[in-house]
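ARCHIVE RECORD
Type: protein–small molecule complex
Small molecule: S-adenosylmethionine
Source of inputs: curated submission
Record status: active
Notes field left blank by submitter.
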Amino acid sequence: MAHSRGHSSHSHGHDHDHDHQHDHDQGVNASADSEAAHQATVVATFDSYRQASLSANQRRRADYYALPKRHRDLLGDYKELLREVDEKLLVNAAFVQQMIEQNPFPPPQDAALDAPAPTDADHDRLRSTLRQCVRDWSEAGKHERDTTYEPILAALEEHFAGVSDEDRSKLIASAYILNHAPEPNSIPIYPYLHSLSNIRSKQDLLAPCYIPDVNPNEIAGGPADFSFAAGDFLEVYGDGPGSWDACVTCFFIDTARNIVEYLEIIHGLLKPGGLWINCGPTLWHFENDRDASSIELPLEDVKALARKIGFEISDEREIQTCYTTNQKSLLQHQYTAAFWTARKRQ
Ligand SMILES: C[S@@+](CC[C@H](N)C(=O)[O-])C[C@H]1O[C@@H](n2cnc3c(N)ncnc32)[C@H](O)[C@@H]1O
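STRUCTURE (tokenized, with ligand):
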């Protein structure tokens, strides 16, 4: 599961030195620089997908050739399998390239010079974006959508538009699919090709997922007022405008370093009587991150905290679901996601 980095320094610059104009300006510039560097790193990650994924497969090939000939002969068509993996990785690379060519967040020209080189975590994030394309936009992701998004939609009496995310890889993918509305099932991708562990058969490994399973133009049933806010949730909604009718958090609240702050912001952005719908586990994203502080509450205590902050919680349920899981894998992660609806007390 991905979380973002780098530009989170944003919020630090933002929090401090409000009373000191000079420092504050420096904070804004530093923040803009780090945002530009982050955008440039995202582009570099997309650009290097082809090379990074092929070289991981090349490592397998080198290990194969290092075996004694007798063992290679016994392995039959392993070499051919690796050739086919390369071939499909190139299909993924073409899609990744198409997405980045339509990047709605291009870095300023000179930022590329200062961009930190993509790390393993950056590559991981892009691979997770490919899996999320399946979760959100393919027939294979229907089970995950049905188990999580359906109860959320059912709980919303009306549909509201407006989504925030800070992970540019995901936003680039969403923008590509929503704005360029490719024909249904016209894009084959192979999102599970980056690991050969827990694969039952060559057919399973090499099977494509097609996206999108619907025409993105048709899902809104007409012109929709749909927007994304790219950025840290704490910054985008931190001012507590109290103007939203509803807020949905799906597999999200556990991305908090400080769950108290998250719940306060959700509370602050809603109108009195506004609806908060939550669905997700408590896989505290920063639990094992030595560089981040992290508060890790049991689920019951998250709910108790929400009540203290000013929510009336109802419709509490547990939902069995998965998250970007390869349904054909021999390893299946299953979540018991906590679902609730909550009203901001008047
Ligand atoms: C596990 S994913 C869930 C995505 C989506 N809701 C779903 O159900 O597929 C968590 C998402 O939260 C985003 N995220 C994490 N921390 C964030 C923050 N502080 N502000 C905005 N988005 C954040 C990540 O980029 C990631 O897309």
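CURATOR ANNOTATION: The radius of gyration is 22 Å.
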